[in-house]
Amino acid sequence: MTEEENQSWKIAITGGTGMIGSAVRKSLEKAGHEVRVISRSGDEGTILWQPDEGKIDEDALTGTDAVIHLAGEPIAQRWTGEVRERIYSSRVRSTRLLVRALRDLPTPPKVFLSASGINFYPPTPMGAQLDESAGEGTDFLSRVCHHWEGEARKAEEFIPRVCRLRTAVVLSPEGGALAKLLPIFKSGVGGRIGSGEQPFPWISLEDYTRICLHLIFQSSYSGAVNLVAPDAVTNEEFVKTLADALDRPAVLPVPKVMVRMAFGEMGISTLYEGVDAAPAVLQADSFEFRHPKLGPALAEILG
Ligand SMILES: NC(=O)c1ccc[n+]([C@@H]2O[C@H](COP(=O)([O-])OP(=O)(O)OC[C@H]3O[C@@H](n4cnc5c(N)ncnc54)[C@H](OP(=O)(O)O)[C@@H]3O)[C@@H](O)[C@H]2O)c1
Known about the structure:
- Helices cover about 40% and strands about 15% of the residues.
- By secondary structure, it is α/β, with parallel strands linked by helices.
- The chain has a single domain, classed as Rossmann fold (3-Layer(aba) Sandwich), CATH 3.40.50.720.
- The strands form 2 sheets. The protein has an 8-stranded mixed β-sheet with strand order 4-3-2-1-5-6-7-10, with helices on both faces. It has a two-stranded parallel ribbon with strand order 8-9.
- The longest helix is centred in the first third of the chain and has 23 residues, at about 80-105.
- The two termini are about 30 Å apart.
- The model has no long low-confidence stretch (mean pLDDT about 95).
């Protein structure tokens, strides 16, 4: 255990009420740190902010050692014009507001972790194994991630370490993509999307929370980080492994036209296409994955 981990840190987290944020908050609290959730809810004990209106309780952030920024409108919904605007502004404008508030503090935090997505990169075939030096794509999610990260990078001027978390699909039965897929696969009608050859980048929720603690307390790294398990799989491999874990068949392929009809561009961008990225920074930084391989990870996650 490092000296930092031994001390109790004050850590503020946006999105701390969400699927990932709740898990990160719990593991930080378990390790003895004081966590304050920054939320739009105004619930007791939380720090109030209203990113849409450019408002945040700056005083409540005084004395914060680390900040984790995960807030954002859910991606998994039909991308109407209004939804696109919310997906974009809930990330870009909220980051701008948060960074501005942190800049005004008498003492800035020591480290800032800011969420981003693996869709920062353009879609790739399997085998591409993009590391963090690869450039951004041009589709909607790539542009969101690019601008989102751009706002986070402004904190590099006054916070010693700023990490941008380029995150793959986070696997947890309690929420996100896996919770949506489970009923379909349990009823035996799951199947590969299109050819199934596209990459399906993934990471377990447990490894995600461990990476946050690693980056805050054990690492001296600053910059982009790919949060993706080392065992890269195709969509077809993912589907087969999930069906095997549930002891169900997965024989019905889902054609592109159905994905487009059901989910619009969101489905094409997140299901029909994929990014093959490698956790190059984490591996160079001696991070050890608890779930490097999909089969054992799913077996454990699904209990
Ligand atoms: N889950 C994944 O597989 C995955 C993959 C890649 C990247 N990410 C990114 O990681 C972050 C956390 O993901 P998650 O799955 O934990 O998300 P989540 O469960 O949907 O939670 C996101 C949180 O953001 C806040 N929020 C929601 N809509 C908002 C809006 N319009 N404006 C401002 N805040 C809003 C909410 O907090 P309050 O209601 O308390 O304000 C909510 O608890 C997101 O930014 C997401 O894009 C997730």
